[in-house]
Each structure stands twice: as C-alpha cells, then as structure tokens.
Amino acid sequence: MSVKIGNIDLGEFPLLLAPMEDVSDPPFRYVCKQGGADLMYTEFISSEGLIRDAAKSRQKLDIFEYERPIGIQIFGSDIESMREATEIATLAKPDLMDINYGCPVKNVACRGAGASLLQDVDKMVKMTAAVVKATHLPVTVKTRLGWDDNTKNVYEVAERLQDVGIQALTIHGRTRAQLYKGEADWTLIREIKRNPRIKIPIFGNGDVDSPQKAANWRLEYEVDGIMIGRAAIGYPWIFREVKHFFKTGQLLPGPTLDERMLACRTHLNKSIEWKGPKVGVFEMRRHYANYFKGLPDFKPYRMQLVKEENIDTIHAILDEVSEKYANDMPFVEMA
C-alpha cells in the first residue's frame, strides 16, 4: 500500500532525506535524489529570517523541479512569524511545508524554537494550527521523543498535532537532552504507530546507517518510512542500497571509485553553479572526506582539496586520485 502525504504518493515504503543545516542544500539534494531518496527537505529556515527578507534565509527557499517532491522546513518561536513565514515559503511552490520541533542546538532551542516547543505543547499545537491554516499545502512535522528522559511526551504530541491537521510526523528517536549522542530509541515510535487514533504516516529517524538496519527496524518498529540523515553525507547511495536490500535481501556492492568520483564532481559543479565559485568551492570542502571514505592514504589529497581555491586545480587533483587508485578496488568496507 502506498504511503501518502496529502495527495503526494510516496510509494510503498519511502526513504526520506533529513533536513540538515549546512548540508541539505540543492547540490547535496541533487546527488541524494540520484541516489534514490523519495522525499527531501530543505535545510531549516528561520521564520524571522524569511520575514526580514534575510538573504541566507531567502536562498534556502531555492528548489528545483528535479527535486520533487520536496518540503520546505521552517522553525521559529513566534506564532505570528511562523504564520507569515508559511505564506512566504508557500510562494516558493514546494510540495509540502514542514515544521521543525526537533532541533536540539542551543541557539535554536534556547530561543524557544525547535525542540524547546516540546516543553510547551499547548503553544506547539497553536503554532501548528496557524501554519496549517496559512497554506494550502500539506503540513508535516519533525520532532523528538521529548525534552529529556523525564518528559517523553511525543505520544501526546502526535495525537494533538494530528488533530490540528498535520499530515505526517517524523520522530527522531532521541530526546533533546541527548542531542545526537547515545543510541536512538524507536520503541516509543512503535507505540505511536500502534495507537489506533493515529491515522497519518509516521516516519522514524535516527541511527539508520545500513540496509540491514533499515530492513530490521522497518519490521521491528512498524514505521511507514525511514528518514536518513548523517549516513547520506558523502554516501548518497545509501538510499538505493536500502531499496535493493528490501527487494532482494541482498547487499548491493558499494559504489565504485568512478561512481564516487562522478558524485563528488557533480556535487562540486552544482555547488559552484548554485552559490558561485568562491562559496561553492568553500562549502564543498566538508564533503571530500566522506566521498572517499575508506580509500587508503587519501589524507594528503584531502588536505590539498580543502585548501585549494582554483576549480581547475581541484579537478586536476581529482584526476590524480582517479589515476592512482584506478586499477584496484581499494575501498575498505564501510562499517
């Protein structure tokens, strides 16, 4: 049976790309879409930034036809600002709107946005209702289990947000207090999925980093789909590998050096195209190590790549990597 958000058909068991600050930009989303992601989200966008017309917030509204279906994710602490930001974001013509009630980072949570709304569910419900009313698009939410171990209130949150009109919920299996440490616990996600009152799709997020884990957790926790974040950084093939494993029970061989090189160059070119040469080159630096993870003795090349500003020289270094490792299969198996 297909999973649907509003009238968006995501197929039988969708794999979602998590919104990640400073990572999930259009160049990265391009390679993840090619890797098989079914639904993607923008980096989270500050509602205040959108209203003030801040350039950085505006730029994050950039979406491209090939990315669809795509959601714009917003966050904020003020209900009226969130309503206005929803109207602005809707004009960018995404397929859905998403609200971030999960970000644990201090400068978001301590300003009353992101995960801090888990401490004030009444306000969260009012804010969500305002967003739902402000757009014709389906509204989804991403959140966590609760603020800390003593206040895991996501069961109540799921019911109340569904009541005010959200059409899907993604739950990261950690509390705000855990940040990204410790293990994600999906047991509460399964309880929500089993709640007879819950009719909307429930997606699980947190620690899915292999096809086997995705398949096991799909069965064990009964979710409607899985959101993958950090495991896709520099490894957009995770989506196709998970899908292949679902279908066949077999592991796909990892990407070849040529495939890694093509993804890396595509990402670099898209980054330059979208942000201009200076910023495009600079922002690509955090990705090289991930694309070539497991390549023995890659470090000297990485050091060159993260210092180099000249685009032709970067391509020349990548050519050298291709030549050096061309004849063997040097990749150490991903842990």
Structural class based on helices, strands and sheet pairing:
alpha/beta
**Strand order, sheet with most strands:** 3-4-6-7-8-9-10-11
CATH topology of the largest domain: TIM Barrel
How large is the share of residues in beta strands? Answer: 5-15%
CATH architecture of the largest domain: Alpha-Beta Barrel
The biggest sheet, with number of strands, parallel, antiparallel or mixed sense and barrel status, is: 8 strands, parallel, barrel
Under CATH, the homologous superfamily of the largest domain reads: Aldolase class I
Q: How many individual domains?
A: 2
Rg, rounded, reads: 20 Å
Q: Give the topology string: H per helix, E per strand.
A: EEEHEEHHEHEHHEHEHEHEHHHHHH
How many strands appear in the DSSP assignment? 11
Helical proportion, percent range: 40-55%
Oligomer designation: single chain
CATH class of the largest domain: Alpha Beta
Mean pLDDT: 92
Query: How many helices?
Result: 15
Distance between the first and last residues' Cα = 33 Å
Note down, in words, how this protein is organized:
- It is a single chain.
- This protein folds into two domains: 245 residues, Alpha-Beta Barrel (TIM Barrel), CATH 3.20.20.70; 68 residues, Orthogonal Bundle (Non-ribosomal Peptide Synthetase Peptidyl Carrier Protein, Chain A), CATH 1.10.1200.80.
- Helix content is 43%, strand content 13%.
- It has 15 helices and eleven strands.
- Helix 1 packs antiparallel against helix 11, helix 9 packs across helix 10 and helix 11 packs antiparallel against helix 12.
- The mean pLDDT is 92.
